[in-house]
Design goal:
single chain; 444 residues; alpha/beta; Rossmann fold; seven-stranded mixed sheet; five-stranded mixed sheet; 49% helix; globular; binds NADP nicotinamide-adenine-dinucleotide phosphate
Length: 444
């Protein structure tokens, strides 16, 4: 495989799609050696076929706001690869959404879903709609208008969307209601549903829980006890609160969370009623964190990110490229032992290079945060079987899956000096599964 040539071709075809090109480059570089062991991959042009989505739908979403004014947003669904199962991946509602971001997320999703051991292909979608500051009625009208277009392209065995940034239980419920009315069927076409209509126990906290199970395995493998370790979290969204709960249960102490206004440093630990308070605040205050400081006597640092705090473990939980080279330098100087992305592509390539150079344990998002989509896969199974598992049953399966993902990373990521390159391990393991499926199914 000639990576430089392939990247150059992609850059020429998709100029300015930085996040997509960044994600593709990272995967190609780490799988190159394994790829070259398989001349059959080269002959079937697996890499060239894998880096382009199967198809992309884009559409306009007109809707009416509370003042009676017509608003128009853009909507997308990227169906990237369904060699091992129906397209599966979340929907993101955020003003920054564009095709580059959705293509990077869809591409990552292919390998992440392959790692879960469940039969799910990769996809992603969303809109530049900003749910912040909108009334409940506006969010409902937007979600209904979005589904009025999207429903034609999805189905329980075709493409199964879920939540992501800006899309939680409320948005999934509004979209599901519209799909059900249009398609005249109750199926597992969306995951992250409420429990009353087919949702799975543990799904809301699964990404954070799974992330901490993975971190626990990373530390255990290195002979390090997670107990009493300090953790810096960023954001406080869908995934961060589950991470904070599980970290505390495992005996670690979460000392930071962040929002668009800055970050909180709470040396006493962010747990229990403090998490409850933040979840309530989040529902009304558009993610800002400052009120926490006054309520619990903690430090609020405006307009900064939490990576300047001295901690043992750093867990990016907000968005892509939120931890850069300067942040990585500071974390390393302050003695960080493990950095694991619960957000997708949370670290820049320069930050990752530094972690690898300093042999810091580094977990890539596609392995660390795979518990979310894995539990979505479990929700699909329950829907197809028309049953509901208990929380303990789902949690046990999630635990098993995270352990299996960790094993795959060890298998393909162990270097000669014993250092585990989790990025390489996750990419190679995920890629091999998809590539073999594509090869077996012929050129289609
Ligand atoms: P969320 O609840 O909406 O929280 C995301 C937070 O990130 C928001 O507070 C947002 O605040 C902040 N943010 C900062 N810069 C942003 C930017 N440029 N674009 C978008 N958001 C930005 O979302 P979430 O579901 O927790 O997702 C967090 C991360 O986890 C994402 O990378 C997502 O892809 C990943 N993830 C989520 C799941 C899941 O189950 N939800 C599963 C796997 C991975 P502002 O908008 O105010 O900046």
């Amino acid at each position: 495989m000639n990576i430089d040539k392939l990247i150059q071709q992609l850059e020429a075809k998709h100029p300015g799609e930085y996040e997509y090109l960044q994600a593709v480059k990272e995967v190609l570089i780490t799988i190159e050696a394994e790829y070259n062991n398989h001349p059959e991959f080269e002959k079937a042009k697996i890499a060239e076929r894998l880096v382009e989505p199967d198809r992309i739908f884009s559409f306009k979403i007109p809707w009416v706001d509370d003042r009676g004014d017509v608003q128009i947003n853009l909507g997308y669904r990227v169906q990237f690869n369904n060699a091992i199962g129906p397209y599966k991946g979340g929907l993101r509602f955020h003003p920054s959404v564009n095709l580059s971001i959705l293509k990077f997320l869809g591409f990552e999703q292919i390998f992440k879903n392959a790692l879960t051991t469940l039969p799910m292909g990769g996809g992603k979608g969303g809109s530049d709609f900003n749910p912040k500051g909108k009334s409940d009625a506006e969010v409902m009208r937007f979600c209904q208008a979005f589904m009025l277009e999207l429903w034609k392209y999805i189905g329980p065995d075709t493409d199964v969307p879920a939540g992501d940034i800006g899309v939680g239980g409320r948005e999934v419920a509004y979209m599901y209601g519209m799909y059900r009315k249009l398609a005249r069927e109750n199926t597992g076409v969306l995951t992250g549903k409420n429990l009353e209509f087919g949702g799975s126990l543990i799904r809301p906290e699964a990404t954070g829980f799974g992330g901490l199970y993975f971190v626990h395995h990373m530390l255990e493998n290195a002979g390090v006890d997670i107990k009493d370790k300090t953790i810096a979290l960023s954001g406080f969204g869908n995934v961060a609160w589950g991470a904070a709960i599980k970290a505390t249960e495992l005996g670690a102490k979460v000392v930071t969370i962040s929002g668009p206004d800055g970050y909180i440093y709470d040396a006493a630990g962010i747990s229990g009623e403090k998490i409850e308070y933040m979840l309530d605040l989040r529902a009304t205050c558009n993610d800002i964190v400052e009120p926490y400081a006054e309520k619990f006597g903690a430090v609020f640092v405006p307009n900064r990110r939490p990576w300047e705090v001295k901690v043992d473990i750093a867990l990016p939980c907000a968005t892509q490229n939120e931890l850069n080279e300067a942040d990585a330098e500071l974390l390393i100087k302050n003695g960080v032992i493990c950095v694991a992305e619960i957000s997708n592509m949370g670290c820049t390539p320069e930050a990752i290079d530094l972690f690898l150079k300093h042999k810091i344990m580094y977990g890539p998002g596609k392995a660390v945060n795979a518990g979310g989509v894995a539990t979505s896969g479990l929700e699909m199974t329950q829907n197809a079987m028309h049953i509901s598992w208990t929380a303990a049953e789902v949690d046990e399966k999630l635990h098993q899956i995270m352990s299996e993902i960790h094993n795959q990373c060890l298998r393909y990521g162990k270097e000669a000096d014993g250092y585990i390159n989790y990025m390489k391990g996750a990419n190679v393991a995920g890629f091999l599964k998809v590539a073999k499926a594509m090869l077996a199914q012929g050129v289609i």
